C-alpha cells in the first residue's frame, strides 16, 4: 500500500455494468474499494466481490455496516471517525465488530483508518453525527491519528465535494509515517493531479457513475501510464 497512488471506490448500492466494471479493474488502478453509506447490503457487497474477483486486482471492503461484512476481500478498512460527536464511531462500533469477528482475524487483514469527514452536506457526516472541523482541528486529528493512535491511514473524506488542496498539503506536512488518503469530488485529470501532489493515495468514487470516461483518465493522470 505504501506504493499505491490510486483507488477506485464502488458503492454496492449503485448499479454498474459488467463492461464498465471490467474496464475499471483493468485500468491500472492499484485497488478496488467497496463501500458506501446508504442501502449497503450483504447481497450487494457479495455481488460486487464476485464480479471484481474475476480480475487480479486488490480488493478492499470499507466496513460501514456489520451485516454487510463478507469474507473474500484482501483488506478490510475499518473507519474510526475522529470528528464524530459520538464515541461509538471511534470505539464502540469497532469493539462490537472485533468481538463478533474475533475468530476470523487470523485469516483477514483489518486496517484501521483515522477518518475525518470534511463535507457537512455528506450523508456520512450526518450518519456519524460529525462536527465540521476547522484547519487547526483537522491538523490535530491528523496528529492524533499518527502519534496517539498509531493508525496506518488518515483519510480526508470530502464525500462528493472537491476539497481544499492547501489543507491537504498542510495535513500531509503533519504526517510522517501514516499514509494520507484523499477522497471526494475528483472528476477529472486536473483535479486528480492536484490532489495527488499532496495525498499519498487518491480515491475516485462518485465520478465513476457520473462521468465514467473522465474517471478513467484519473488513473493515467497520477500513475503516468
CATH class: Alpha Beta
Cα end-to-end separation: 19 Å
Element string (H = helix, E = strand): EHEHEEHEHHEHEHEHH
Task: Name the overall outline.
Answer: globular
Structural overview:
This is Heptaprenylglyceryl phosphate synthase. It comes from Oceanobacillus halophilus. Keywords: Lipid biosynthesis, Lipid metabolism, Magnesium, Metal-binding, Phospholipid biosynthesis, Phospholipid metabolism, Transferase. With 225 residues, the chain is α/β, with parallel strands linked by helices. It has one domain (6-223): FMN-linked oxidoreductases (TIM Barrel). The protein has nine helices and eight strands. Helix 7 (189-196) runs parallel beside helix 9. It starts with 5 loop residues before the first strand and ends with a helix. The mean pLDDT is 92.
How is this structure best summarized?
InterPro entries: GGGP/HepGP_synthase_I (IPR039074), GGGP/HepGP_synthase_sf (IPR038597), GGGP_HepGP_synthase (IPR008205). The chain has 225 residues and is α/β, with parallel strands linked by helices.
